[in-house]
């Protein structure tokens, strides 16, 4: 209290020492990732699923159908304005030999609330849209209840995953894919895997 | 074009603040008045350019300029215009720019209102502020520029602002907090300047006091608003989560509270000088540490801002320079300072000292609880998490001595008191508090736990002793009404600050103990009863907003046959990001909140609803407001208004007998 002046200088250096120790831990903390468990599915295998084809009746797809090739999974929907912009670019990628599988994400459909889903209306809408923009997809998986999207950690559309021939997810990109993001993120990995020049 | 202008302006501002950092400090060191005189112009100049830069970002956001990464990822064309403006601080880069804006604003304000300071001190204060500005501007320009461009390939639509942030409370919460954090840098600069000058007298305490109080005022409002926002927006009735990011704002607040009490003692009595300097350094250090925690991603938090080690490295480096440097300076200089004031064990000084110790212990507990998971992990002992129980228990223990001392302190006078004179007063107040608490709680509730009783008792104790003190002082020489009118603002500030604190304690205790929550499944037309209130689920209606669609549950509430209110609890789906958001509906009153949140739809038309009855919860934020009002009162005190020159002899209202026993914040 009032005896501050009598204390040795060391007393006044205590805060500095404590701060110094704290800094060491903060520094180490910077290089360990507290979110390790939450980084989604990178480096993991495709989650198991069994979902219908968007356009074809009585056709189902599962994770096993996807093994053996390198491909992109593109999450999209007709309701998503950015997807509309992205589609022509994806079509160009398809022309360059990239296999793209669509994961059609239905927005906000609630089975209990909205009644029977009108699949035919959606198919018409999708056909019309792809006729205008070009169709980049090998086929589309229809994820009405957003179960696969949930397992993949999808937060919106468009999002794109790069999956290798063993079914391991290598990249997860949110937002639209364009020449810039393709060159920066996807092209290096893709060339490495397929050994083709894109 | 406009975004480039913003970037260039920020670069110019950086240049000016580098000069602001060098010239005045060098001038003060070499006693060159010309260099020192450059400081105010530089301070104003950097402020102007920073504002231009921010205006450019606002413009880009308003005009949907998605060529900017920042705008594209934090806004969308369907966002209402006011959220387009607030989206400029909804993301990391924009938030840092806002921080820079405030830093520059405070610096300019200090330079304008410090005209009567002696040049060496004024130059040093502005120089230190300039140094801080350099750090933050460098960071913004190098590590997190909101003006980064996506050209030539840019999206036609943005990602939208996080729907959680699309709320009026969220519009002003971050700016208030930043005002507080940055405001503490002014107290910090005054402390460093005082250490550099070597004059740690009452003058610096007097000068830095209004700045500290303004910063504290903003922090208080910011924290209260953040808590209110969480309560009304997150949909599960919580108001404080002990999340690292919340803790990051609580620590500077606790230190600032200690600081403004300690400043009062230093200013009035010349005691605790070096301690006050340390607190001033610590206050801003905790702001910086908080920024580091929030911005570096070392800790997992629900607020999740960014995880970029590069950014973290920069802030940590800056933290090390600023805090390490100032603590080193403190270690060298502070030991030379003596605090000659003398006082006895039973005096206001000791009460203030106790207050400081307890607030610092509270800060350390928060720091420990926040960082222990990190330290634990780095020591190789595995991941642990420290949650609410730890903090709640620790704070319960601290509350008892703190609130007890808080009740006694105003009754104490400076220097010394006779215990016997006070004994009867304290006994009387204590007895009265017990009677009031017991009759209140046992008449309202069937079960009263000892923890709740103690907490409410302490709140009542603080309130009654404060009232007691007011009446005693007012009626000492004159009638009550005349006496009341004679009190200074700062005395009223103490009263209001302490009363606000009592409100918060009371509210937290009662809400924690007596909140009732029920998750129910309801069909339209069904009713459920909770604490005498009958909730009737009238049905669902569709809602369409500017950038969302959704459902609203209509719930009418009756009590004893009379209609109380009708609530619309919403569940929204935001179009662009496809995120669901719960908008709880709340009927607020001083006695209780009725809170309804809409859950999922269940089969055959039934819905899940969550209903809360929360007694006295309003008093928490009301208490925060009352505390903030205390800060406002001091700022309006004529002693601090404008650029008054002389450290006036304080004229206290009532005392011929106790010339130093003024009613300062204690």
Q: Low-confidence runs of chain B (pLDDT<50, min 5 residues)?
A: 301-306, 642-666
Summed up, the domain count of chain A is 2
Question: Main beta sheet of chain A, described?
Answer: 5 strands, mixed
**DSSP summary: helix tally of chain A:** 6
Helix content of chain B: 55-70%
Order of helices and strands of chain A: HEEEHEHHEHEEH
What CATH first level of the largest domain in chain A would be assigned?
Alpha Beta
Number of helices of chain B: 18
- Terminal CA distance of chain A reads 74 Å
Query: What is the largest interface, and how many residues per chain?
Result: A-B, 47 and 63 residues
Strand order of the largest sheet of chain B: 2-3-4-5-6
Briefly characterize the structure.
With 198 residues, chain A is an alpha/beta fold. Chain A has helices at residues 9-30, 81-95, 111-114, 119-133, 147-152, 179-194; strands spanning 50-52, 60-62, 71-76, 100-105, 137-143, 159-163, 169-174. Chain A has two domains: 2-36; 38-194, Glutaredoxin, CATH 3.40.30.
Walkthrough of the structure:
The complex is a heterodimer of chains A (198) and B (666). Chain A has 198 residues and is of the alpha/beta class. Chain A has helices at residues 9-30, 81-95, 111-114, 119-133, 147-152, 179-194, and strands at 50-52, 60-62, 71-76, 100-105, 137-143, 159-163, 169-174. Chain A contains 6 helices and 7 strands; from the N terminus they run αβββαβααβαββα. In chain A, the strands form 2 sheets. Chain A has a 5-stranded mixed beta sheet. A two-stranded antiparallel ribbon of chain A has the order 1-2. The model of chain A is unreliable at 1-6 and 33-39 (pLDDT under 50). Chain B is an alpha+beta fold and 666 residues long. Chain B has 4 domains: 1-162, no CATH class; 167-334 and 350-374, no CATH class; 418-514; 516-616. Helix content of chain B is 61%, strand content 11%. Chain B is built from 18 helices and 9 strands. In chain B, α5 (92-113) crosses α7. Chain B is globular, with a radius of gyration of 27 Å. The relative contact order of chain B is 0.08. At the A-B interface, α1, α2 and α6 of A face α10, α11 and α12 of B.
């Amino acid at each position: 209290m009032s005896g501050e002046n009598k204390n040795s200088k060391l007393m006044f250096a205590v805060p500095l020492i404590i701060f110094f120790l704290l800094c060491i831990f903060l520094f180490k903390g910077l290089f360990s990732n507290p979110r390790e468990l939450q980084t989604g599915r990178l480096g993991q295998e495709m989650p198991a699923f069994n979902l219908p084809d968007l356009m074809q009746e009585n056709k189902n797809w599962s994770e096993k159908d996807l093994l053996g090739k390198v491909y992109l999974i593109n999450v999209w929907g007709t309701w998503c304005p950015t997807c509309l912009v992205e589609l022509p670019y994806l079509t160009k990628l398809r022309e360059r030999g990239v296999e793209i599988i669509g994961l059609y994400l239905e927005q906000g459909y609630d089975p209990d609330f909205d009644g029977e889903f009108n699949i035919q209306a959606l198919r018409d809408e999708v056909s019309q849209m792809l006729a205008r923009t070009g169709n980049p997809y090998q086929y589309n998986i229809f994820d009405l209840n957003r179960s696969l999207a949930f397992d993949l950690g999808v937060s919106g559309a468009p999002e794109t995953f790069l999956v290798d021939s063993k079914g391991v997810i290598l990249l997860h990109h949110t937002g639209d894919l364009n020449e810039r993001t393709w060159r920066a993120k996807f092209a290096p990995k893709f060339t490495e895997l397929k050994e083709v020049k894109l | 074009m406009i975004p480039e202008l913003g970037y260039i302006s920020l670069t110019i501002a950086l240049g000016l603040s580098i000069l602001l950092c060098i010239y005045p400090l060098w001038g003060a060191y070499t006693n060159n008045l010309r260099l020192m005189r450059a400081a105010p112009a530089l301070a104003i100049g950097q402020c102007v350019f920073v504002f231009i830069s921010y205006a450019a970002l606002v413009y880009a956001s308003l005009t949907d300029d998605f060529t900017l990464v920042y705008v594209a990822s934090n806004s969308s064309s369907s966002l209402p215009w006011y959220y387009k403006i607030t989206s400029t601080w909804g993301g990391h880069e924009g938030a840092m720019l806002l921080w820079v804006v405030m830093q520059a604003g405070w610096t300019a304000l200090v330079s304008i209102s410090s005209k009567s300071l002696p040049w060496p001190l004024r130059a040093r204060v502005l120089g230190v502020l300039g140094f801080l500005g350099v750090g933050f501007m460098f960071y913004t320009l190098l590590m997190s520029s909101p003006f980064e461009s996506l050209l030539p390939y840019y999206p036609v639509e943005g990602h939208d602002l996080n729907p959680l942030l699309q709320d009026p409370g969220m519009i002003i919460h971050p700016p208030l907090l930043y005002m507080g954090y940055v405001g503490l840098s002014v107290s910090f600069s005054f402390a460093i300047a005082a250490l550099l000058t070597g004059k740690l007298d009452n003058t610096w305490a007097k000068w830095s006091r209004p700045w500290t109080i303004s910063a504290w005022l903003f922090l208080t409002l910011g924290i209260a608003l953040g808590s209110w926002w969480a309560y009304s927006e997150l949909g599960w009735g919580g108001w404080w989560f002990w999340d690292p990011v919340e803790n990051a704002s609580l620590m500077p607040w606790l230190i600032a509270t200690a600081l403004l009490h300690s400043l009062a003692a230093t200013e009035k009595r010349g005691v605790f000088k070096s301690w006050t300097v340390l607190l001033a350094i610590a206050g801003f250090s905790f702001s910086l540490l908080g920024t580091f925690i929030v911005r570096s991603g070392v800790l997992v938090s629900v607020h999740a801002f960014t995880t970029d080690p590069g950014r973290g490295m920069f802030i940590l480096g800056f933290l090390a320079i600023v805090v390490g440097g100032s603590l080193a300076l403190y270690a060298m200089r502070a030991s030379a300072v003596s605090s000659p004031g003398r006082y006895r064990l039973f005096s206001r000084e000791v009460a203030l000292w106790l207050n400081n110790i307890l607030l610092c212990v509270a800060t350390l507990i928060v720091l420990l609880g926040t960082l222990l998971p990190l330290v634990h992990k780095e020591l190789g002992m595995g991941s642990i998490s420290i949650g609410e129980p730890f903090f709640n228990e620790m704070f319960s223990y601290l509350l008892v001595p703190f609130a007890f001392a808080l009740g006694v302190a105003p009754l104490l006078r400076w220097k010394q008191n006779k215990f016997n004179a006070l004994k009867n007063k304290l006994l009387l107040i204590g007895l009265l508090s017990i009677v009031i608490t017991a009759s209140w709680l046992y008449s309202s509730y069937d079960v009263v736990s000892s923890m709740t009783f103690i907490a409410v008792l302490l709140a009542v104790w603080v309130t009654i002793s404060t009232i007691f003190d007011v009446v005693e002082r007012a009626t000492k020489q004159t009638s009550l009404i005349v006496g009341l009118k004679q009190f200074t603002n700062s005395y009223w500030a103490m009263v209001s600050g302490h009363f606000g604190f009592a409100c918060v304690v009371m509210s937290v205790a009662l809400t924690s103990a007596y909140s009732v929550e029920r998750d129910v499944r309801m069909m339209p037309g069904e009713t459920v009863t909770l604490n005498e209130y009958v909730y009737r689920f009238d049905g669902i209606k569709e809602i369409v907003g500017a950038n969302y669609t959704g459902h609203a549950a209509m719930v009418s509430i009756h009590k004893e046959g009379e209609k109380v209110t009708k609530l619309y609890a919403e569940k929204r789906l935001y179009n662009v990001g496809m995120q669901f958001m719960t908008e709880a509906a709340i009927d607020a009153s001083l006695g209780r909140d009725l809170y309804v949140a809409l859950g999922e739809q269940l089969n055959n038309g039934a819905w899940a609803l969550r209903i809360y009855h929360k007694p006295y919860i309003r008093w928490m934020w009301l208490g925060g407001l009352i505390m903030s009002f205390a800060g406002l009162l001091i700022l309006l005190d004529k002693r601090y208004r404008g650029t008054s020159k002389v450290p006036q002899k304080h004229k206290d209202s009532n005392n011929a007998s106790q010339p130093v026993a003024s009613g300062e914040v204690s």
